Amino acid sequence: MKFRVGVISGDGIGPEIVKEAKKVLDKVGSEFGHEFEYEEILMGGCSIDATGVPLTDEAIEAAKASDAVLMGSIGGNTSTSPWYTLPPNLRPEAGLLKLRKALNLFANLRPAYLYEELKEACPLREDIIGDGFDMMIMRELTGGLYFGDRVTEERNGVMTAVDTLTYNENEIRRIAVRGFDIAMKRRKKVTSVDKANVLDSSRLWRKVVEEVAKDYPEVSYEHMLVDNCAMQLVKDPAQFDVILTENMFGDILSDEASMVTGSIGMLSSASLNETKFGLYEPSGGSAPDIAGKGIANPIATILSAAMMLRYSFDLDAEADAVENAVKQVLKDKYRTIDIMPQEAERAGEVTQVGTSKMGDLICERI
Amino acid sequence: MKFRVGVISGDGIGPEIVKEAKKVLDKVGSEFGHEFEYEEILMGGCSIDATGVPLTDEAIEAAKASDAVLMGSIGGNTSTSPWYTLPPNLRPEAGLLKLRKALNLFANLRPAYLYEELKEACPLREDIIGDGFDMMIMRELTGGLYFGDRVTEERNGVMTAVDTLTYNENEIRRIAVRGFDIAMKRRKKVTSVDKANVLDSSRLWRKVVEEVAKDYPEVSYEHMLVDNCAMQLVKDPAQFDVILTENMFGDILSDEASMVTGSIGMLSSASLNETKFGLYEPSGGSAPDIAGKGIANPIATILSAAMMLRYSFDLDAEADAVENAVKQVLKDKYRTIDIMPQEAERAGEVTQVGTSKMGDLICERI
Ligand SMILES: CC(C)[C@H](C(=O)O)[C@@H](O)C(=O)O
Ligand SMILES: CC(C)[C@H](C(=O)O)[C@@H](O)C(=O)O
């Protein structure tokens, strides 16, 4: 089969890590008899430099024309990069938000789990880690505070800023359905997170989730307040299977969850719409401080490509092959610098490799 | 001196823990020659049961008439308590929100630190704990999503809920000033947390904080995005001194930070207005599951009373005496059940005591 992959290399370490993911896709292609055609799409800081805006209409069209989009990372150092002297709607991140909305990518899936081999990188105590944990954050991505009306203006001589948090029942229902669907393929538990003791939008959220839950009698579900969830992620992450939540809470909790695993360089994500189309990107940022040094961890991007194979192209065996190759490379004790053991004596047991070598090693195992 | 203390015992474990804090205040009174006069104020579930509403106007007046308010906790089990079948504005928590607004308690201080003696309760790995950590979350408490307009209504036949997040420059300035003031008495570092890459209110927040920072040349400050802060609290909590943030982010981050310490039963909080007046309460919840069993940890409430002595009554020596008594009781190896060591062999080294006994032991050390 032939697939058109839109590629947003982006800024910082983006181009380096995307290059390795393409290498892996090509290896999958030759092993399994598929062809991946890449179309470079400009977004973020590099697009600002080239076109003056973080995302052009042509770029949106190119993304729409592809079967799925693979992304590296966008943005730079917010204190030193000139991109951040531009008005907010012209900064790199505005491109990403615009693309999410334009492609209607309302369902953001962020797996967070503990790699047995990287247990020591986990910031939690061993007895809390226990047998490990494996959760999926299902974050609503095109509603809420991110896309509400906003204004900054003088009111009675006082500068005032307003953002609005809006959700309607349809927006909540479609993400809730996604959350319960995915729970059915996992451990059949949904934790819906909101702030229903304060927000109207959360109370509507809770009501709609309860309606949706009725269609999934096999799934056990619970409601949890966002402040409590922020605690529980540290106290007992193993309790979670699927965490279902709105845009801003999902932003905060998914980052907390990925840090709790200790291996943010390993975590992929998918942003999906109603069709098979999706945007796939690593959970980590553009890490401008290490860009160009050839030391960035490409695994999260490679695993994002695996998610693309699975969710957008229905190539489950191929996705498994990539995921297993990643597991094998860890078992074979290869590490990029971000996942090296902390203690010097342990470091001797593993081999530190750069971005490109890590890509090669994974390809060899496919 | 004579002080009028409004007392909100509240629900769940509230009455038990408040009783111990009063015991301690009385001991301070007799040792240092002060008199504390208590006035019981109804709020939360117990007020609903007695009056039909979670906070009456008389209760507000009683709070206003006192020099400071000491609170236990309010609310019950949200799934089983009949209080949660009431409309949102009649539930227990609505009383607390109403009181915060009525008394203009805009500055919420939540210390989060590692007790050397309770290091093992910390969910983080020893090398991350390092020499420990000690931060103060300064949360804005009367603005933002908590107090914005909200509505739930049909729009084109689709049920839609809207909450609004509003901040004006004056609201931001007064909390920022508090944050920098307190940093001056601490390690002189402020981390201002926002989501300036998305929200107008955060961009105004950042601008005003920068203006305020100019008046504090000795304080080093930085801006941090809320998603990053949620990660950093787990990765390296020692980096923080004062975290300054808006209401909803502060709700989430302060709970995360207190769980990171592992000793939520030890953490106090203060909610202050422009005067010396304040509301003092433990960080933990009403824990209805253990209410009435005499096992709740009263220390957070006792330390909240110490904060009251310090911030509202300017009784620094008295506050020190209470805080030192708490430290001593831990050194003397007394523990309530929530802070008992996990390992059986270690448990033998300490003495487990109940709520009332813990209060007595602290009194003895004042
Ligand atoms: C870059 C930023 C706007 C974005 C977000 O907040 O959604 C990022 O943090 C993410 O989580 O993908
Ligand atoms: C009870 C609830 C409304 C409250 C809040 O969200 O502010 C609580 O979580 C807190 O942090 O004091």
Give descriptors for this structure.
homodimer, 366 residues, alpha/beta, Isopropylmalate Dehydrogenase, 2 domains, 13 helices, globular, binds 3-isopropylmalic acid
Approximate shape of chain A: globular
Number of domains of chain A: 2
Q: What is the subunit arrangement here?
A: homodimer
Text of the CATH class of the largest domain in chain A: Alpha Beta
User: What percent of residues of chain A are in strands?
Assistant: 15-25%
Helix coverage percent of residues of chain A? Answer: 40-55%
Q: What integer value in Å does the Rg of chain A equal?
A: 20 Å
Total helical elements of chain A: 13
Q: Might you state the CATH topology name of the largest domain in chain A? A: Isopropylmalate Dehydrogenase
The largest sheet of chain A is: 10 strands, mixed
Counted beta strands of chain A: 14
The mean pLDDT of chain A is 96
Largest interchain contact: A-B, 63 and 63 residues
Unreliable stretches of chain A:
none
Strands side by side in the biggest sheet of chain A: 2-1-3-12-11-4-5-10-8-9
Binding site for substrate (chains A, B): 100, 110, 139, 227
Domain Isopropylmalate dehydrogenase-like (chains A, B): 4-362
Binding site for NAD(+) (chains A, B): 285-297
Keywords (chains A, B): Amino-acid biosynthesis, Branched-chain amino acid biosynthesis, Cytoplasm, Leucine biosynthesis, Magnesium, Manganese, Metal-binding, NAD, Oxidoreductase
Can you walk through the features of this model?
The structure is a homodimer of 366-residue chains. With 366 residues, the first copy, chain A, is α/β, with parallel strands linked by helices. The first copy, chain A, has two domains: 1-103 and 277-366, 3-Layer(aba) Sandwich (Isopropylmalate Dehydrogenase); 107-262, Isopropylmalate Dehydrogenase. Helices cover 41% and strands 22% of the residues of chain A. Chain A is built from 13 helices and 14 strands. Chain A has helices at residues 14-32, 45-51, 57-65, 92-102, 126-129, 169-184, 200-214, 226-235, 247-261, 299-311, 316-331, 344-347, 355-364; strands at 2-10, 35-40, 68-73, 107-113, 134-140, 150-155, 158-168, 189-194, 220-225, 242-245, 268-272, 278-282, 334-335, 351-352. The first copy, chain A, has a ten-stranded mixed beta sheet with strand order 2-1-3-12-11-4-5-10-8-9, sandwiched between helices. In chain A, strands 6-7 form a two-stranded antiparallel sheet. In chain A, helix 1 crosses helix 10 (299-311), helix 1 packs parallel to helix 13 (355-364) and helix 8 (226-235) packs parallel to helix 9. The model of chain A has no long low-confidence stretch (mean pLDDT 96). Chains A and B meet through strand 6, strand 7, helix 7, helix 8 and helix 9 of A and strand 6, strand 7, helix 7, helix 8 and helix 9 of B. Strand 7 of chain A pairs antiparallel with strand 7 (158-168) of chain B. The complex binds 3-isopropylmalic acid (2 copies). One 3-isopropylmalic acid sits between chains A (93, 96-97, 251) and B (197-198, 227). One 3-isopropylmalic acid (IPM) sits between chains A (93, 96-97, 251) and B (197-198, 227). Chains A, B: It catalyses: (2R,3S)-3-isopropylmalate + NAD(+) = 4-methyl-2-oxopentanoate + CO2 + NADH. Chains A, B: It is an enzyme of class 1 (oxidoreductase). Chains A, B: Catalyzes the oxidation of 3-carboxy-2-hydroxy-4-methylpentanoate (3-isopropylmalate) to 3-carboxy-4-methyl-2-oxopentanoate. The product decarboxylates to 4-methyl-2 oxopentanoate. Chains A, B: Substrate binds at residues 100, 110, 139, 227. Chains A, B: Pathway: Amino-acid biosynthesis; L-leucine biosynthesis; L-leucine from 3-methyl-2-oxobutanoate: step 3/4.
